[in-house]
TrEMBL record:
Keyword Phosphoprotein among record annotations: yes
Function: Component of the signal recognition particle (SRP) complex, a ribonucleoprotein complex that mediates the cotranslational targeting of secretory and membrane proteins to the endoplasmic reticulum (ER). The SRP complex interacts with the signal sequence in nascent secretory and membrane proteins and directs them to the membrane of the ER. The SRP complex targets the ribosome-nascent chain complex to the SRP receptor (SR), which is anchored in the ER, where SR compaction and GTPase rearrangement drive cotranslational protein translocation into the ER.
Compositional bias ranges of the Basic and acidic residues kind: 573-594
Name assigned to this protein: Signal recognition particle subunit SRP72
GO terms classed as biological process: SRP-dependent cotranslational protein targeting to membrane
Residue span, Signal recognition particle SRP72 subunit RNA-binding domain: 541-597
Subcellular location: Cytoplasm; Endoplasmic reticulum
Domain of life: Eukaryota
Biased composition annotated in UniProt, kind: Low complexity: 608-642
CC annotations in GO: cytosol; endoplasmic reticulum; signal recognition particle, endoplasmic reticulum targeting
Pfam families cross-referenced by the UniProt entry: SRP72, SRP_TPR_like, TPR_8
Keywords: Acetylation, Coiled coil, Cytoplasm, Endoplasmic reticulum, Isopeptide bond, Phosphoprotein, Repeat, Ribonucleoprotein, Signal recognition particle, TPR repeat, Ubl conjugation
High-level lineage: Eukaryota, Metazoa, Chordata, Craniata, Vertebrata
Amino acid sequence: KMAAAAGAAAAAAGLWSEVNRCGQNGDFTRALKSVNKILQINKDDVTALQCKVVCLIQNGNFKEALGIINTHTKVLTSDIIAFEKAYCEYRLNRIESALKTIQSASQQTDKLKELYGQVLYRLERYDDCLAAYRDLIRNSQDEYEEERKTNLSAVVAAQSTWEKVVPEDLGLQEATYELCYNSACALIGQGKLNEAMKKLQKAEELCRQSLSEDSDVTEEDIEAELAIIHGQMAYIMQLQGRTEDALQLYNQIIKLKPTDVGLLAVIANNIITINKDQNVFDSKKKVKLTNAEGVEHKLSKKQLQAIEFNKALLAMYTNQADQCRKLSASLQSQSPEHLLPVLIQAAQLCREKQHAKAVGLLQDFADQHPANAAEIKLTMAQLKIAQGSVTKACMILRSIEELQHKPGMVSALVTMYSHEEDIDSAIEVFTQAIQWYQQYQASQTRGANPKSPVHLSLIREAANFKLKHGRKKEAISDLEELWKQNPKDVHTLAQLISAYSLVDPEKAKVLSKHLPSSDTMSLKVDVDALENSHGATYVRKKAGKLTGDNQQKEQGQGEVKKKKKKKKGKLPKNYDPKVTPDPERWLPMRERSYYRGRKKGKKKDQVGKGTQGSTTTGSSELDASRTASSPPTSPRPGSGAAVSATSNVIPPRHQKPAGAPATKKKQQQKKKKGAKGGW
């Protein structure tokens, strides 16, 4: 027994040396085989179990490693294997479990703190994550300091993008392209697009310099690394309205076939937003990229939500009503307070001509979520206007209390009421808005009564509206209030005098004394320059030098208007002044009385027509009863002459000039036309 034990110990020692050598060489597959042999000797060897878990992690077998940890909980306690367990859970996308494992560890090692920061970032707990990385940078000094700073800048960029938090200046030197890229993302979140584009260009330059130093890196590898930077550049172009440039860059990235499924999903989604309701077949192809495996672990919640919204909209644009309803209902169940799902459902109902149902759906949502009621009611009002129910739209708009006093809302309501010729309601809208500003400013100034520019502007607009619609008495109080605020305002005083002149002339006379005198109102205007300006309707001609004859004419006869010389008309080359012009020369050739059609060969026309010995001359031409002096006979049934009298009237453009004689040839031509059945 002692010899067997000694042999087993010697074998184990040899195996451990093999494990150590393979570990140093990075050959974890061979190391795993040696560890398994050790465990055959002693299945509960804690060190061997730890080594096996590490070998499996290094080989990417996270599930198997986690299984070994969970089956040997008595031996592998949380104090010993906490980091490996949390790391396996993190890599298997069990983020919540990883967080619990880290928090349950008795000792927070540096490795656990690093992993804790990564877990918090994936859970989008950016404030806690920022604090964790600051603590790590403050208390760590090793070769990984640059990576920690990069992660810290990524957290700041995420806060700026998704939480709209203004990032603080961390004082990080942007020496690497990763730091430069994250800084650009933070600037995009703040809306500083031009600055962000410059940062991305700098990041691209740094990336090329960094990778070109490695001789093993090809140009394709560099382009693949630059894909994410180019993707952000295209996004900035899209935000700036340069959609064609953005689309071109997006498609270039897709052609590279990057391995990052998250990047491909974002680019495909952005292309779909550019296409909108156009090029839907291309959009349907791009949607497949957003459904790739693992996308949900690469993107933030808001990114995934935006992709799902666009899928629902694309289903609506492609007339997939059931799919649209299904997707929007799923989104609404996930985010009950979000506006977009219910708006998509309402839009789909409108496409199906169910406007009343759409309005009802929006009304239910507004009742359930009062915080979002304003935007929903604006949509309801738009639907009512589309249906022609302007008055109902006004009622909906006036129910939005937080917007009643806004100048834009007042303007919209007054315009709509004016369209409906409801002047009283329009004036009521003005009155309510003015009262709101009076109450607000009274509360802010503790009884003082200065008017804000918006308040004064509303009063002026109300006065102008009342004057326009003949409400002089109502306009007077508004004008007096305006004049009281600014007694030097001549325009308001003039309006007030004009209004009083129709209501109280005596009062108008009294007020007119406050008008400035004509001397003080004289304007320094160059009349000549004004008359000769480009926009003047009348331009005075400059006086030229007058000769002696011209002076006499002006003194004796006054100004004589110059007569324009008529240009002589061009005469035809064959014009003969002795010959009277053809009175029918203005008519088309076909409508002239002497037109006989195109000339054809006589022999060709006569050969083979009629019986032998007969002539081609019509019998109607030899019949004396059909001459011009004879009364017209009744037309034959079915002939072209049997047309209503009105249809034979020649249009005015073709009428014969007055006084032209009706020749015999003209009558004959008409008869020929009638015999042929008309044309």
